[in-house]
Amino acid sequence: MIASDPITLEIVKNALSSLADEMALVILRSAYSPIVRDSMDYSTAICDRNGEIVAQGLTNPIHLGAFPDVMRILVEQHLDGMKPGDAFLVNDPYGGGGMHLPDVFLIKPLFIDGALEGFAGTLVHHSDIGGLAPGSMGLQATEIFQEGLRIPIVKLFDAGTINGTTIAFLKANSRTPIELMGDLSAQIASVDACERGYVQLVRKYGSASFRGFLVELHNYAERLMRQQIAAMPDGRYDYVDYVDGLGDDPRPIRFEVCITIAGDSVNVDWTGTSPQVQGAINGPMPTTTSMTYVALRAAIHADIPNFAGYMRPVRVSAPLGTIVNPTAPAACAARGVIAYRMLDTLFGALNKIPGSRIPALGEGGPSVVSFSGWDEGKAWIITDGILGSWGGRSGKDGVDGISSPGTNLSNQPIELIEARMPLRVLSYAFAQDSGGAGKYRGGLAMVRSYEMLADEGLVQLRSDRRDHLPVASSGGLPGSPSYTWLEDGGAARLLPVMPMGPIAISAGARLVHLAAGGAGLGNPFDRDPQAVLGDVLDERISPDMARDAYGVALDTAGRSVDAAATAVLRAAATTAEQLTAQQQAIFARTNNAARLLG
Amino acid sequence: MTQQRSYRVGADIGGTFTDIVIMSSTGEIFKRKQSSTPDDYSRGIVIGLGELMEAEGIPADAIVELVHATTVATNTVLEGKGARTALITTRGFRDVLEIGRVRVPRLYDLDYEKPKPLALRRHRYEVDERVLADGGILTPLDSDALGAIAEDIVAEGLEAVAICLLNSYANPVHERAIRDALEALLPPDIFVTCSCDVLPEIREYERTSTTVVNAYLGPIVRKYLDALSGRLRKIGVSCPIRIMNSAGGLMSIDAASRKPAYIIESGPAAGVIAGAYMANLAGYPDVITVDMGGTTAKAALIEAGQPARTTEYEVGAGINVSSKLVKGGGHSVKLPFIDVSEIGAGGGSLIGFDGGGLLTVGPESAGSVPGPVCYDKGNDTPTLTDAFITLGYLNQDAIAGGAVRLNAARARMALDKVVAQPMGLSTEDAGLGVQAIATATMSRAVKAVSTYCGRDPRDFALFAFGGNGPMIANEIARTMGIRTVIIPPSPGVFSAMGLLFSAIEHEFTATDFRLLVMDAGDSFLAGFNRLDGRARDAMLAEGYADAALESEWFADLRYQGQAYELTTPVPAGQDGAALLATALDNFHAEHKRTYGHANSANPVELVSYRVKMRVVRDQSDDMDHWAVAPNDAPHDARRAVFPDEPHQEIPVFNRGHLVAQARPGPFIVEEYDSTFVVPPGCTAHVDSFGNIVVTLGSEIR
């Protein structure tokens, strides 16, 4: 009877997902630090009594696979003795199931009449958890011991009583204790809100029926996922992409994935990927599984509820000791950069599946610029994510100015930054002539530049995609490269994509970051000349770019398409390599340090 | 000759109908539903009003006020028919408008289309100037550049100009200089608006977007309101016209023409204001309103008699799916709105199955054409209305006093074929299932305005109206654990009636971004006094008497570091220190209530002052005319189905049958504009204001 009642199941499914959304809203509204409230780097989850996810309040897809490992370990090691009013804290990737140290989980078991019925989980990226760099994401770390406070699974609450010792350790180890405690309070409020709603929901149906519903809904999610996978042709689809590398003399880091579709299940294997590195960009396995789920869900165009059952047909494997499955004590605080490259690699492989509608690649994940300093004994830190653009899509252009689908972060209001921090923002704009040409144009790159106002401070940078550009699709051209220039007391210098350590700067220093642009899809000579004209009128591209990369000539006033001249241009035999070279030359002319720093 | 009676008019425009309500100074009420005239909505008002005046013998000069709720602003955005708009901004920041907040409203959706900016990049002009966060001037305005910009605006055929500079909330001097210069340089029909006049608040994208929306709407709304007053004058009606704004207050027609971004949710606000008014009157200060029509259901929270407000809104995002987490579906408008959560579920919602085999209701709708299967106009996919007719809740032959004929047999067949047979259910069980899903969907809208904001719906009564609201109200109440349901008189034209009971009210804000240290009391008070003075001047300029003005103070506060403020009441009439202390106490308490935690040791930041100016007016609360006469005439009966209850013959009453005595469910109340179902286990009576008040049984499913 229960199994054949799709109505009750639909209601329970919606009730759980709206409860998880409610948890997320509680955090959004009451969190303290900019990275939580403005960037929205956090997630919430509800799990069943076995620790399997039944709903996620998703604000950040990179957390999609965050909960299964930590929940498995929690249930395996701490189920005995768990009691009402307990809540657990953990961030350790090695042994705790965490992602990186700034991401602190708070998980509360939910009891009804003495029986465990589920868990409320939250995961928040905290502004600072100690370690060698302000913001706890220093690239130069070589071991996790340098990255901040490691929290194994510990009880923050024991039968409703908060553990003051744990709180004292947390506060003593953070540069920003007020923000840390504020954000943690938001997490506590969130799991408490979940508990109220969950108890009411379970009581409505009774425990036995409710448990049955959850089993059915796991099966339902699995069924949907299998249907979608079965619709893809069987085969092995592989792809390789790169991160430029670390420090002043970067060496490329290779990402190789092989996706095997067999009937209604899929195997995703990362064999061939580079070994772990001496720097903070190693990504423990939960990040790797997260990105795999994100890519598959984006590829299948179906609305699948966040019941763990959908993960059953998916197997993710990576050799131990690779950068996507590192062993302790590999540093991992800045692992975001490889998460986005994994997503790109997966998209590349999925794009090989006949009938797929995967876009050309986007900017390759947000760049992170962080400024920090001390003011009268108090630390100030701003971790600013510079979001990017999407690549051209089948039937439509990429998007100018948008978050990577792997993260869905927001940007921080400039006026809030200027009102609060000793920083001035000099510009926030699209870069003309960036992005990759194509029948469907790649999204324009973002530029954001800053001026330091405090006497002294530090700047850190995490970026990529200067040597290895966003990859185009179906004859489009690659996206434009990313650059960062720093001018401090004189000439501007080009910073490496990932400098190994903070750079000291002084008042008046100016930094301009140019993100990578999205890649194009389809031959640019097939682009509607009117669309090219529109881009010229909007100054998204220059008349030179229209001519050299799109084969479109305009009249002398630049207000309309010269059809005859365009036909001549487009009739010339021009290879994609020639077009790419012309595109990059124009990009370099338009977007250089002298122009962008004014 | 005795003094002539005077009349006030409420006019509410919907997609299908324009509702006109006239109330006389002695309390008589006249109603008319008139087909809307989408080519020019003002025509429908004037036709409907003219006919009603003629029928009732009301002379034009006896009409003393017309209050209007309009969808013209929101439709302009949804249909992309606004003005060709320019934006003038600080050098380096012309893309702020288009970049927005860069989030995607649906995860994993690689087909996402960003809303097209309402000012094209080629029409976004940058000027050399720079104001700092503390209001200081880093770079003076290059006024010489404005001449060329004005020429280009004219050459490009632009119709509106928005001006929004970085940090102008802290010092508007450059914005004003540009505005004054352009007003001198441009032809007068070009609409010029600047952010310091529309939304002087911190956050550059939200302020820019709001100002651009204002410009985009400006010429269209101005033209519409001019047409409306012109047509009214032609039939001799020359009274003041007031427009309902999104926050439920009334604006003069001039203010609405200058700040059309304030009237985007004019229509939904009218219903909520009406609900708040009637619920207060009937002794229910805490209610959740549910307004359900053919395609959507809207919910709003009223607490202590006041509708909940929000300043986070996106226009053009289509239906608000009640997730406040993900933005990016539309254009941000950060002005005061009544917090209305909208869900794509109404009488016309189509029934189907998703890929995994679960039953779904909406959000696709059969609309009014072809409409539900029972309308017999060619639609074969069953809708929620078809489920209601199958369950016996709706009249089996016709609704709207016979104006719309219904084919119950076809509805039943469609439900049987699409839902019952594939699921192996009886047709009735399929109907009940559809109702349960629709109830769950609409409950989400109710949760969005209650549990999501930290309010327990069980502490509220449910106040339902709209064509379909009363039909499903009791099921929503059951699901949410709500014990009392109220159905006001004339639920179908309730919003138009509500217009006659709203106050003239306008909200003013000023951002003063700083920490509230203990000795800041005097400057805090000074900030309020400054804004209060400005607000008063603006109201006086609109012609209201100083003695009639009443102001309420609020401060937007948050803990240092938080991104979102809580609008906290600050009772005026205290000295600075006391004012600050009360504000902080209220903030900590409100934070605790909303989020479950507060820390009075943490520093608190002031973001903005808010002053609400209200015009006190003489309004009779003599509501005897709402009362319904008892009716003991024989009533109809028909067969209907309820969960866990056998088919049964149940009474079909009208409101009058419930006056003399409370009656136990199950029964149905049928009226001209709505149908109301009282299931088993509930009792209902009509109160002295004509409301049907239902008490749900103690058993909560």
Structural commentary:
The complex is a heterodimer of chains A (598) and B (701). Chain A is an alpha+beta fold and 598 residues long. Chain A folds into two domains: 6-223, no CATH class; 359-598, no CATH class. In chain A, 31% of the residues lie in helices and 22% in strands. Chain A has helices at 6-30, 34-37, 66-78, 164-172, 177-205, 207-230, 285-300, 336-350, 414-420, 529-537, 543-550, 563-571, 576-590, 593-596; strands spanning 42-48, 53-57, 87-90, 103-112, 115-125, 154-158, 161-162, 235-243, 253-262, 265-269, 314-317, 367-375, 378-386, 423-430, 446-452, 456-462, 483-487, 492-494, 503-506, 510-514. The model of chain A has no long low-confidence stretch (mean pLDDT 93). By secondary structure, chain B is of the alpha+beta class. Among the domains of chain B are: 7-76 and 223-263, Nucleotidyltransferase, domain 5, CATH 3.30.420; 82-213; 349-437, no CATH class; 504-615, Dna Ligase, domain 1 (2-Layer Sandwich). In chain B, the strands form ten sheets. In chain B, strands 13, 14, 15, 20, 25, 26, 33, 36 and 37 form a nine-stranded mixed beta sheet that branches. In chain B, strand 28 and strand 29 (566-569) form a beta hairpin. In chain B, helix 1 packs across helix 7 (204-234), helix 4 packs across helix 5 and helix 12 crosses helix 13 (469-480). The radius of gyration of chain B is 26 Å and the shape is globular. The model of chain B is unreliable at 319-323 (pLDDT under 50). At the A-B interface, helix 1, helix 5, helix 6, helix 7 and helix 9 of A face helix 3, helix 7, helix 12 and helix 16 of B. Chain B: This is Hydantoinase/oxoprolinase family protein. Chain B: Residues 8-184 form the Hydantoinase/oxoprolinase N-terminal domain. Chain B: Residues 521-689 form the Acetophenone carboxylase-like C-terminal domain. Chain B: It holds the Pfam family Hydant_A_C.
